[in-house]
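Feature request disguised as a bug: please show the residue count (236) next to Succinyl-CoA:3-ketoacid-CoA transferase in the output. Example input:
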Amino acid sequence: MNKVYSDARTALAGLVKDGMTIMAGGFGLCGIPETLIEAIRDSGAKDLTFISNNAGIDGVGLGRLLETRQIRKMISSYVGENKTFAQQYLSGELELEFNPQGTLAERIRAGGAGIPAFYTRTGVGTLIAEGKEVREFNGEKYVMETGLFADISIVHAFKGDTEGNLVYRKTARNFNPMMATASRLTIAEVEHLVPAGEIDPDCIHTPGIFVKRLVHVANPVKRIEQRTTRKREETV
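Example output, currently without the count:
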């Protein structure tokens, strides 16, 4: 089976529909599947639910789908860098399900492992626990959280082979590996596409069995979300 598609739009053809739930990898602007996000924008699909740690920034990443109002709901951890997100949420246009970051990561991992729910101490006694089951174990209270599973996952990898085996680079190995397991179909954009067998099996982060479609995106733009610099020291 050929998993490699000529471009992102072709890879998504026939898959993206109104009302779908989609997982999008990345942390901030690091490791986000920006080319696939743009293809989803071009599809015109609306009323989408996105599971993503954050929502990019204005005009970048999922911020582009917020601008076109294609997202109905976000299941996220941190969204503080996106003014469009804040405006839509405060005006009631956008539904938001907030999660502590570790809880979000575990909900995704649980979904990929076939675990419907689990208990955690995080959030007990706060707004996070409202409406959820709370049980006591060994004298401590725990809140029940459900696993997350999506229709489609879109991820970004540094390297991939034609069988869909993926390698993520450094910080970009964030939510991508978990999300690749937690949907009915995973599509990956890869910076370096190599023949099957070229990647050392011990270096594979996501086995190809989880990946159904691939897009080669060479030399993607690496954006910096928060640029921090120091004053150059004066030379005598």
